[in-house]
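In the previous chapter we treated chains in isolation. Here, by contrast, the input contains two separate entities that must be folded as one system, with a combined length of 628 residues.
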Amino acid sequence: MSSAIGIDLGGTKLLGILVDERGSPLARRERPTCACDGPDVLVGSIAALARELAEEARAAGRPPRGVGVGAPGPLDPRTGVVYAMPNLGEDYVRFPLRERLTRALPELPVAVENDANAAIQGEVWTGAAKGCEDAILLTLGTGVGGGIVAAGRMIRGARGAGAELGHVIVEPDGPPCGCGGRGCLEQYASGTAIARLAAEALARRREGALAQLAAPSAQDVVRAARAGDELALAVIDRGARALGTALASIVHVLNPELVLIGGGFGSAAWDLLEPSTAAEMKSRTFVASWEGLKLARAALGSDAGAIGAARSVI
Amino acid sequence: MSSAIGIDLGGTKLLGILVDERGSPLARRERPTCACDGPDVLVGSIAALARELAEEARAAGRPPRGVGVGAPGPLDPRTGVVYAMPNLGEDYVRFPLRERLTRALPELPVAVENDANAAIQGEVWTGAAKGCEDAILLTLGTGVGGGIVAAGRMIRGARGAGAELGHVIVEPDGPPCGCGGRGCLEQYASGTAIARLAAEALARRREGALAQLAAPSAQDVVRAARAGDELALAVIDRGARALGTALASIVHVLNPELVLIGGGFGSAAWDLLEPSTAAEMKSRTFVASWEGLKLARAALGSDAGAIGAARSVI
């Protein structure tokens, strides 16, 4: 009996999960992180967290096979080099994450994976996409991440920069985006975008529940929408339509059997987003791509990335 | 020593190619087809063409392993059922092409494949994408077709309806498209779309070389653009910008190492399209997805579909 350690590297915390060979969690631990700390502290924290979980594993008679880390940025899993992790600051451009971790943790094999890729790997292993050969995951959070399984394989692209589903273009002349382009999905359906769309709507017409707040967050918009606030519902609808438009393009490319929506905003708002998302998608796709397609909320929530990262070493 | 037969099923002709085990052509034959003839005549023609090539193969001491057929429509290669072939008429909705061909050709194993999927299979086998693990092909012709190889595999989607790259959305409120949506790439960068864009431009301002023609075709536009006609150059530029926008979305999804452009219009116009296509893509993608990406004309031209279809039975 063995085990594996998965660590999800977030903007404010590290989440570590120890799983058995089938992906069932045996233990979980968290540690705060801060972009202000810089790479040395971050690498040290990840190594310390991995070591704690490794000790727990050995104490339970299940020596760990290694540690998989899900990182918030495009990376090449073969070299373990992260292209960038903008949410953790400027210090991580072409950052050799696996090499640094291997030096800090010589006793354990280390794998690194993009966090959204790790998340869909987790969902396919033990979650809502269990056993699927053709599935995608969109995580709507601070940004919009993506993961793809097609023909039974993870699709990462030639240099690990694929599955960036947040950068599928919705409006060619829309707001500028961090990728260099304009009007990407991320500019309409991330939590950040929902807060921006709400601010823009309030600037035009200051009314309803959100007008009471100085700077409504995406979660404020979700709450107000649930209470029937019209402005909040219109903002959610704008995000959902953009999501449906981007998904129509993605579905024409990949024809998945399952589309999962996760991430902080996406998980919280999925029941509100679903009707307009589905209607927009359906109006823009062939019957053959729409038939048999399921849309669902991701099942593992914020554990998906750590669980999927653990799978990389099993 | 054996061989394989590939047949590309086009709107006006059947192209049959006999290849050796490495994909080198040994013989080729054509037969006219007409949408007016209906399914019985079409199936009979395909079978007759296959039989002629099979006899040639046997005479050369290379008995054929089977026949692969590339069909112009989305289909499920596992069942051999074509969802539709709009360019061949209304008779082919959920048409059991493989079953019908197997009955007509009981002596040979039959495989069917979407024509653009067959084409990229041909390019990966012996053409411009030889050995690539992550490549895409867009065929710009009457419509816009697509083929995808990712992580070394053909990506057809859960029901064979993937790789429909012509239906990636460029303008969400653009012209209506055959897929049910609006503003798909096919509405800007197919030969049909180029002819429509030219007619629209002439309706606004009747000037230049194209104004002499009653209804300029895409090939007329290409010719006029080569002669420096401004209206024709503007139409080509509109198509190229749309192609670059759609490719930016596709590259964010798949991060290929190679993008091939083929099809009648695409092959003829690629040198004219390339500068604006590349500029638009580059302005809309991460450095990590753009770096190391090659754009090129498909190498096998109109033979790619037949050669790739032959590979399906090797």
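Residues 230-254 of chain A form the longest helix (25 residues). Chain A touches chain B through 53 residues (CB under 8 Å). Compare these points with the single-chain example from earlier in the chapter.
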